[in-house]
Amino acid sequence: MSFPFVFLFSGLVFNENVMKEALEVLDHVRLNFSPSGLFALNVTIAFIMFGVALDIKMEHFKDVIMKPKSAIIGMISQFFLLPFITFLLVLVLNPTPTVALGMILIASCPGGNISNFMSAMAKGNIALSVSLTAVATLGATFMTPLNFALWGKLFLKYYNKAGAGSFLVPIEIDFFQMVQTVVILLGIPVILGLFFSQYFPKLTKKIKKPIRQASIIIFIGFVIILLSANFSNFIKYIHIIFLIVLVHNGLALGAGFSVSSLARLPRVDRRTVTLETGIQNSGLALVLMFNPKIFPPELELGGMTFIAAWWGVWHIVSGLTLSALWAKKPLYQPAVR
C-alpha cells in the first residue's frame, strides 16, 4: 500500500501522485552520449580521481590506524548509514524505480572531490578529510557495487511486491561489472596519483591546484551538456528534481552530523564527517549509468540521470553554503569570566 507523501516548499504542495506522474515523463527522456562523449566522461572522472590522489599521502592511511575513531565514524556514516537512510527515503517517497535507483546509486558512491576544500573552508579537520577521502575512494571499489546491489535489489523487490507494477525492463545488477568499472575509474587513477605524489613531490605541488580547478570546471561542463540536450523537460520538472535532491542531500548532511555528534567527536571532526557524508561523487554515478554493460541501452533512465546530474550541481551549493556558515562560527565557545 502506498501512503501519500507531501512536499511543502515555497508555497507549493506536491502529493505523491503528482510527483510520480512528472517523474514518469522524465523516465522516457533519452540522454544518450556518443561513444566519444562517454569516453571523454570516463577520462574526466579518472582525471578527477588522479587529482584527488595528489593530495593523499601514505601518512593519511597511518592516521586512520593511529586515531581510528573519527575515521571509523566517517566510514560508517558514508557507506552504511547514508545508503540505509536513502533506502528508507525512497520507500517513503515511492518515486519511479529509476529515480529511486538513482538516489541509491548516489548514496553508494564515495565522497566528492571537493569535500577536502570544503572541510578547509569550514575550519574542519583537513587531515581527517583527506584520510577519509583516501580510505573511502579505495574502499568504494568494493563498497559502491555492494551497496547498490544490496539496496537496489531490496527496493526492486519491494516495488514489485507493493502492487506498484513491475519494472518494464528488469534490471539485473551486475556486481562484478560494477567492481571492474569502479576499479578502473577510481582504483587505478588513485594508485597512480599516490605514486606520482610520492616520487614527484615538487611537480605535484605545482599541478595539484590547477588540476583540481580544471576537473571541477570540466565536470560541470559535462552536466550542462547533459541537461541542455533536454533543457525544456528539465526546466518543466526542475521543481520535483530540486525537492527530491534537496531532501536527500539534507538528510545526508544531517546523518553525518548526527552520527558524529552521538559519537561525541570533536567539533572540528563533526564538520568534516558531515561534509564527507553529504558531498558524493555524482560523476562516478553518471559514468556507471551510461555503462551499457551495467545498464542496457534499452532501459529508460532519464529520471535516474537527471537526479545524479542535479545532485552534482546542488551538493556544491549546499556544501559551500554550510562551509561558509561554519567558517564564521567559532569552534569553541570562549570561557565565561
UniProtKB/TrEMBL annotation:
Transmembrane residues, as ranges? Answer: 39-58, 70-93, 99-119, 126-151, 175-199, 211-231, 237-257, 278-295, 307-327
Question: What InterPro entries does the entry give?
Answer: BilAc:Na_symport/Acr3, Bilac:Na_transpt, Na+/solute_symporter_sf
Keywords linked to the UniProt accession: Membrane, Transmembrane, Transmembrane helix
User: Topology relative to the membrane, per the entry?
Assistant: Multi-pass membrane protein
Predominant cellular place of this UniProt entry's protein: membrane
- Protein's cellular compartments: Membrane
* The keyword Transmembrane helix is assigned to this record: yes
GO CC term (a single one): membrane
The name this protein carries in UniProt is Bile acid:Na+ symporter, BASS family
Q: Which organism is it from?
A: Mariniphaga anaerophila
